[in-house]
Design a protein that fits this description.
Layout: H1 6-16, H2 20-29, H3 34-51, E1 59-67, E2 70-78, H4 81-84, H5 87-103, H6 108-113, H7 122-133, E3 138-146, E4 148-153, E5 159-165, H8 170-182, H9 196-207, H10 215-233, E6 239-240, E7 243-247, H11 248-254, E8 259-266
Antiparallel strand pairs: 1-2, 2-3, 4-5, 5-8, 6-7
Helix pairs in contact: 1-2, 2-3, 3-7, 5-7, 9-10
């Protein structure tokens, strides 16, 4: 059996970011062969990850990625808030969002089987992450939208948003994403996107208290109320969170772009 030096252990630790003892045991088992040691570690942690799969993943993070081709979000789950807020988990979530954008895959099983640019599979990436974090990890949902993208994730990682535009929105696009992430109610990008049943319900409520008034007056009242109703629910008409004297649409126009699509994720939310 080859004698394992501290230098070998440190080199494997630098490569895998795993505990010194795990690295030493793997090198001993691999008789000093670093490549075999990495395989041993992955097999070990893959088995342990499977054994831990029953553990509840009540915490998590939203991964985000955007470029000139589009934007993607990925909700990644873990067991504890401690892991959800660490840098390694953040990087994992963002890397998975990037993989969604690059491949166009939004099915969890298919993405897990897909290969990264270095040839490693996403499943292997998750196994490596488990070796560092020792928690049940899983991908919950994925979304990709096409166009010149921008993205934002809240500082705690639990809320993320992305938009796509007709042209590169630059930093202004990120500000719009901050608006999306911080706004509770958005039911459409423009009025035409809002469900007809919701609009009809809104109009009926707007008519309340108008009985007996002339038809043209009723119409004027209803239209006025519906204008406010839409401004509370339609993204491009909402008062911009960073300057409520202008709408989100007006802010985008000033920035030289128009918003073509948006998506918002919150940990524990539903599509």
């Amino acid at each position: 059996m080859a004698e394992i030096s501290a230098k070998q252990v440190q080199a494997l630790r630098a490569k895998t970011d795993l505990a010194m003892m795990d690295c030493k045991k793997a090198l001993v088992e691999a008789d000093g062969d670093e490549t075999k040691a990495v395989e041993i570690l992955r097999k070990k942690f893959a088995d342990k990850m499977t054994d831990r799969a029953h553990k509840e993943t009540a915490n998590g993070r939203i991964g985000v990625f955007a470029d000139g081709q589009g934007a993607a979000l990925a909700e990644i789950r873990c067991e504890t808030d401690f892991v959800a807020t660490n840098d390694a988990f953040r990087d994992l979530a963002n890397k998975l969002a990037e993989q969604v954008l690059r491949t166009g895959i939004t099915n969890v099983e298919e993405l897990t089987a897909s290969k990264l640019h270095d040839g490693q599979t996403v499943k292997g990436l998750l196994v490596d992450a488990y070796g560092k974090m020792k928690e049940n990890l899983g991908i919950r949902r994925l979304t990709r939208i096409e166009g010149a993208g921008a993205c934002y994730v809240h500082h705690n990682g639990r809320v993320g948003a992305a938009i796509v535009c007709d042209t590169d929105p630059g930093e202004a696009g990120r500000h719009v994403c901050m608006h999306v992430a911080s706004t509770q109610t958005i039911v459409g990008l423009v009025r035409e996107d809002v469900d007809a049943a919701l609009v009809a319900e809104g109009r009926e409520r707007a008519k309340e208290g108008t009985a007996g008034k002339p038809e043209q007056i009723i119409e004027k009242i209803v239209n006025g109320k519906m204008g406010k109703w839409f401004s509370e629910r339609v993204l491009t008409e909402q008062p911009f969170v960073m300057d409520d004297k202008k709408s989100v649409g007006a802010f985008a126009k000033e920035g030289g772009f128009s918003i073509k699509g948006f998506v918002k994720y919150e940990v524990g939310g539903v599509d």
